[in-house]
Specification:
Elements: E1 2-7, E2 14-18, E3 23-26, H1 32-41, E4 51-53, H2 59-62, H3 65-72, E5 76-79, H4 80-89, E6 100-103, E7 109-111, E8 114-120, E9 129-135, E10 138-143, H5 151-156, E11 162-166, H6 171-176, H7 181-188, H8 196-206, E12 213-217, H9 226-239, E13 251-253, E14 263-264
Parallel strand pairs: 3-4, 4-5, 5-6, 10-11, 11-12, 12-13
Antiparallel strand pairs: 1-2, 1-14, 2-3, 7-8, 8-9, 9-10
Length: about 260
């Protein structure tokens, strides 16, 4: 399996997961042109994409969805609540009939030979989910847009070979920043976003000897920066209640506007 971030940040998200036979995108929150450029950098074309898994209806996760669906007829997988919110919102234009496939959290399904396990995430959206994907004995996951983590989420992220995890904001930067009070409270709330510190604490629950790579993603443009996210998460791991040091793992920050390295497992 391969995991690669085409774009990840508060301004737009698009993640590739695939193997030799099946190629999927998780979200399409950047322009269709940028998605195509990213896919091309992976030596694929948009016609090779077998499906797009949508986490939720916020613009930074669906911006290019309509263009890609109409141009290439790519199947779209999302919960019923997300589908209703997208169609009601009218921001991505008309979706051709038959392309939307409704899924349910905790009900695995297959796209060709990839098993996909959606799980609920706590976020201020209609019916948001994260995704765990499995191929044979390999598993990767994408978990962003979470105000908090729970034992349920920890359970769904166990025994992974690779993970893209949200490290959205530095709490102090957010608190003293220019955002209005209500927006700060939303981000800090249980249905907001995961801070650098909490990302590190969650990782302490997930680390194991066979974890081959970690991307830190969905960084806030206003309330975080790459080096701070990386150093904070690494400190939580190294100083946390676990047998590992951060240097034991490949940890990278997924770029906002540039394709990441590929984690192959």
């Amino acid at each position: 399996m391969r995991l690669c971030s085409i774009a990840s940040g508060s301004s737009g998200n698009c993640i590739y997961v695939g193997n030799n036979n099946t190629h999927l995108l998780i979200d399409a929150g950047i322009s269709g042109k940028r998605v195509e450029q990213g896919v091309n950098e992976l030596q694929l074309s948009s016609r090779d994409i077998d499906g797009i898994l949508i986490t939720h209806e916020h613009t930074d996760h669906i911006q290019g969805l309509g263009v890609l669906a109409r141009r290439y007829g790519i199947p779209l997988y999302m919960t019923g609540g997300t589908a209703d919110a997208i169609l009601r919102g009218g921001k991505i234009g008309k979706i051709p009939e038959g392309l939307i496939h409704e899924i349910c959290e905790d009900e695995p399904f297959f796209v060709k030979d990839l098993k996909i396990c959606p799980f609920t995430i706590p976020h201020d959206a209609a019916q948001p989910v994260g995704y765990r994907l499995e191929s044979g004995d390999k598993a990767v996951a994408v978990a962003t847009d979470m105000g908090r983590y729970s034992e349920y989420i920890v359970d769904h992220l166990q025994n992974l070979d690779a993970l893209l995890l949200e490290a959205n904001h530095d709490v102090r930067m957010l608190q003293v920043g220019k955002y209005p009070y209500h927006l700060k409270q939303r981000i800090l709330g249980d249905r907001g976003h995961l801070s650098n510190e909490n990302a590190g604490r969650l990782l302490c629950r997930l680390l194991h000897d066979k974890l081959q790579g970690i991307f830190l993603g969905h960084l806030s443009q206003e309330n975080n920066y790459e080096q701070l996210a990386y150093e904070t998460v690494c400190a939580e791991i190294t100083l946390g209640d676990n047998p590992y040091k951060s240097r034991d793992f490949r940890i990278e920050v997924a770029g906002r506007d540039a394709i990441s390295n590929i984690i192959a497992v």
